[in-house]
Specification:
The chain is mostly helical. It has one domain. The protein contains 15 helices and 3 strands.
Length: 374
């Protein structure tokens, strides 16, 4: 039997906002791939693949919204263990693409276990912190288990290599720490220790980066040092965004995107394509849609009926905000290029489904405010 309070709690404006973001994303992908795929090759066009993934994403959204999140969280640790198993399989049987080994092939489809890891880590950390919630804040010993839950998949993802996803999952951890809190003594000691150790940790991380990752960081500092190599993406992205002006050049009028000066046009730099086509006014409209999502999640976190719901929502806010800010920062040249897609907008199968499932989980928390099960 369907509880009418759940139906009444559905945020129909959310559905409109999601349809607009997804629709604009598909339109942008179509605009930069239709000419390349105009010849009959027998392959499914990229924009059609994106539509198929969006449909699958809506299925995941509805499933995650409908099943009580208290029931889902019971399986947090088994889901986490299954994700670790898949991440271990990646270097053994994973498919190589674009210089990285991140995908597992299952028949005609391939998926990224690192994308699944985002949700499993979110669930595992939320379960741990809610089960062992200290009212006076966390002590050092309280961080050992959650830090291990974070670092194990983080190391496996870094080995693929996938620096962007590895950094993104850390945003889940730190966002939840903001809710749970640290004891003042630990916070002071941690801050002092971080300041003292940062040069050594920085050098250690630098020594373990791949050559192309080091070049990306150096290019971020000064793209003009290598304008035809590692700095090419950032320079072309800035040109595309700036050339859009106030109202843009139109759907198929962008020179940087249509003439293929801009690399990774349908994935990492899809925002540059959109900015060139629709200009400053289009950017304002797109940002307003994402801003609605942000405030929607904030409202859910503040009105959640239990600490578990708040942790799930805040962890998701940290993750989605990280992807949005880093992707936009990449295209503007204010952050290094680390291969982070724009949520709900860039082309990507597993990323689309996992993001939609995550949003469904947030709606789940909101809907359960209207039911008495505590």
């Amino acid at each position: 039997m369907i509880d009418r309070r759940i139906i009444a709690g559905y945020d129909w404006l959310l559905f409109v906002v999601l349809f607009l973001i997804l629709g604009l994303g598909v339109l942008s992908i179509y605009s930069v791939t239709y000419l390349h795929e105009a010849s009959p090759t027998g392959r499914t066009p990229i924009y059609m693949k994106q539509i198929y993934w969006i449909i699958l994403g809506w299925v995941a959204f509805l499933i995650m919204a409908w099943i009580d999140y208290h029931e889902i969280i019971r399986f947090a640790y088994p889901i986490y263990a299954g994700t670790i198993f898949m991440l271990v399989l990646v270097p053994l049987i994973g498919r190589v693409g674009m210089g990285a080994q991140r995908w597992i092939q299952v028949g005609p489809l391939s998926f990224q276990p690192s994308e699944v890891a985002k949700i499993s880590i979110l669930l595992a950390l939320a379960k741990y912190f809610s089960d062992y919630y200290p009212k006076k804040g966390l002590d050092l010993k309280d961080l050992l288990v959650p830090a291990t839950l974070l670092l194990v998949p983080m190391v496996l993802i870094l080995k693929q290599p996938d620096l962007g996803t590895a950094l993104s999952i850390s945003s889940i951890f730190f966002s939840m720490l903001f809710v749970v809190g640290l004891r003042s003594k630990l916070l002071i000691n941690f801050s002092l220790l971080s300041a003292m150790m940062s040069p050594f940790i920085g050098q250690l991380v630098w020594d373990h980066l791949k050559d192309y990752q080091k070049k990306r960081i150096l290019t971020f500092m000064n793209p003009a040092n290598d304008p035809t190599g590692t700095g090419y993406q950032i320079i072309q992205s800035k040109i595309a965004i700036g050339s859009g002006g106030v109202s843009g050049k139109g759907l198929f009028g962008g020179t940087q995107s249509q003439l293929r000066f801009l690399p990774e046009r349908h994935t990492d730099f899809i925002f540059s394509v959109f900015a060139e086509q629709w200009g400053f006014l289009g950017i304002l409209f797109l940002f307003s849609l994402f801003l609605y999502l942000f405030f929607w999640t904030i409202e859910i976190a503040t009105k959640s009926k239990d600490i578990l719901g708040s942790l799930i929502v805040v962890g998701a806010i940290g993750l989605i905000s990280f992807y949005f800010l880093v992707n936009i920062g990449m295209t503007l040249g204010v952050m290094p290029v680390v291969g982070v897609p724009l949520p709900l907008f860039s082309y990507g199968g597993t990323a689309m489904v996992s993001t939609m499932a995550l949003l469904g989980l947030l709606l789940n928390v909101k809907l359960r405010r209207f039911m008495l099960f505590y």
